[in-house]
Specification:
mainly alpha; 97 residues; single chain
Amino acid sequence: MPDNQPSQADRDSDTFFGPWLRRRRRELDLTQDELAARAGMSVRQLRELESGRVGAPRASTVRILADTLQLSSEDREAFQQAAQSERDHRRAGRQTA
């Protein structure tokens, strides 16, 4: 595994956006279909965000999901930070490629 790639254990932690999103969705006992409908996004987009298969989420998407997931101020900050970390990580990966 290249040095700039996180381990699977790291990818599964709440410091990454996808696992954070999945954990909160499950806490609310929502299916991917239900959350996608509430957030006004496609199920495919939500699945790809949770799995980390897409690029880092846009700030507007993060805001919509944070609102839909009814995050507290503290959780919203952590959620946004996880999204920013994802954007920073992907940006760094492009620069070293």
